[in-house]
Amino acid sequence: MPRKTSNRAATPAEPALLPDSMPAGGNVPELSVSDLSGALKRTVEERFGHVRLRGEVSNYRGPHSSGHAYFSLKDEGARIDAVVWRTAFARLKIKPEEGMEVIATGKVTTFPGKSSYQIVIESLEPAGVGALMAILEERRLRLAAEGLFDSARKRALPFLPSVIGVVTSPTGAVIRDILHRVAARFPRHVLVWPVRVQGEASGDEVAAAIRGFNALLDEGAVRRPHVIIVARGGGSLEDLWGFNDEAVVRAAAESAIPLVSAVGHETDWTLIDHAADLRAPTPTGAAELVLPVLLDLMGGTERLRMRHRSAIANILDRRNAEVRALSRHLPSGSEVTALPRQRLDRAATQMPATLKARHDRLRLALARATTRLASQSPHATMARTAQKIEGLRERLRSAGLRRMERHRAAFSAIEARLGTAFQARLRVIASRQAAERTRVAGLGDRLRRARDGMVSQRGRRLAAATPLLRSLGYKSVLARGYALVRDDGGQAVRSAAALQDLRLAIIEFADGSVTVQPAPGGDQAIAPARPSRGRKAPTAAVQPTLFEP
């Protein structure tokens, strides 16, 4: 019959230990180990609550596979265990590192599993500016080793960008200074991506803004900027810490748009300054570096136009002078045509004799060509070709007969060799087949003997394991008078508190099982069940209680 057990733990006001004057076995109620652990846990949590601890991180091996982090905080004289749950670990601005001195904020509690106390950390911050500088230097060296700060990766800014993207706070003085400087120097279209420039979320927002500008299209309602300015006013190292975030540095290094860093004053340096294509001393200076002065450009253009006009006039004057100088040295028209006219007269005089000589040479060449054509007439050529073909036919017939005789003799010799080799190969194959049959017969006998031995050995092992299985099974424990309690899903119930939350429960004895329905007020309802060795789901019928008359 199930019995309800109280799980109430002793409070700190209750006497949990025996006084020195009271002998053992007095009226002081006895406590279980769980009751004492629960009382200590409540005492520690009510006494201390949230605390801030300063210490050095020890035994940190990174987050567990579950996402939780376990380590210790220590100083010169003591050590305390620390745990950071997975959800809190994801929100930590500063991740714990071995040997780092930190200030942890959390709740002091106990861990009953090994009777120890610990702190559940909710936030973590470095202990002092020195720790921040150490973290900053370590991060700078690591990112520099990856090549994110190489000067070869930096690009020149466009001369006159049409759209300027600004990542900063929309309510600070920085954006007003930038807009005023842009309007004074060269009015351009400015896109502002509002972010928080201070606090734990500032780093993620700045990185998302840089990637968001890069994701815009060149054409559309919101055009992609040609240059990005990341700006913030001056402040302490803690105030500017968001711009030292690794996500911000990687976003700046991956940006396909040239990026200008204008964080803090001229003496302030952050990691985004190393990854940006250009660093400006102030946000106002960033606007001056991105845009030229319109009036200066107009004055320079006017000066260039005047110089261009003067240069063209000077060139034209020099060319006119050169033409006049050259015209004085040119000869007259009669002098230029005198020599060609003389050559023309001489050629007209020599032309009749030249034509007659040419006519005679052509007649002689025609006579020689006629003689060659007669010897190369089609009839003569066909007669010579027919004689050659007849001679070649006789030679081909003789050569074919001789070749057939040689092939016939070679085929006869090959046939004889193949017959001899085939008979020898058949004898070798027959001998091999006989040897293989003998070997297969021997292997069959060995396989049968091995099979019979293995079956006999496995039977002996099975016979020896059967008594051991019976003695170790939980059925033998039930036969000694114990019972097994299960819920309606077939899972074992390990405590009375868990039994109170169930709608139905099954108690299994050695000779069968009964179904129990817990009743309000601590009484339990029970219904007999048919003895069964299997696990069956309880029925939904209303069961009578044990305490009904």
CATH topology label of the largest domain: Rossmann fold
| pLDDT < 50 stretches | 1-23, 523-549
Q: How many strands, which pairing sense, and closed or not: the largest β-sheet?
A: 5 strands, mixed, barrel
CATH class membership of the largest domain: Alpha Beta
- Report strand %: 15-25%
Secondary structural class:
alpha/beta
How helix-rich are the residues, as a percent range? 40-55%
Main sheet strand line-up? 1-2-3-5-4
Cα gyration radius (Å)? 54 Å
CATH architecture of the largest domain: 3-Layer(aba) Sandwich
Tell me about this structure.
This protein has 549 residues and is α/β, with parallel strands linked by helices. It folds into 4 domains: 33-127, OB fold (Dihydrolipoamide Acetyltransferase, E2P) (Beta Barrel); 153-292, Rossmann fold; 379-472; 474-549, no CATH class. Helix content is 50%, strand content 16%. It contains 13 helices and 14 strands. The protein has a 5-stranded mixed beta barrel. Strands 7-6-8-9-10 form a 5-stranded parallel β-sheet, with helices on both faces. A 4-stranded antiparallel β-sheet has the order 11-12-13-14, with no helix packed on it. Helix 7 links the parallel strand 9 (259-263) and strand 10. Helix 4 (173-185) packs parallel to helix 8 and helix 5 packs parallel to helix 6. The longest helix is centred in the last third of the chain and has 95 residues, at 378-472. The chain is flat and about 160 Å long.
Brief characterization of the structure:
The protein is α/β, with parallel strands linked by helices and 549 residues long. The chain has helices at residues 33-48, 86-91, 129-145, 173-185, 202-215, 246-254, 271-275, 283-290, 294-329, 333-375, 378-472, 474-479, 496-500, and strands at residues 50-58, 69-74, 79-84, 101-111, 116-126, 163-168, 189-194, 227-232, 259-263, 278-279, 484-487, 505-509, 512-518, 524-527. Helix 6 (246-254) links the parallel strand 8 (227-232) and strand 9.
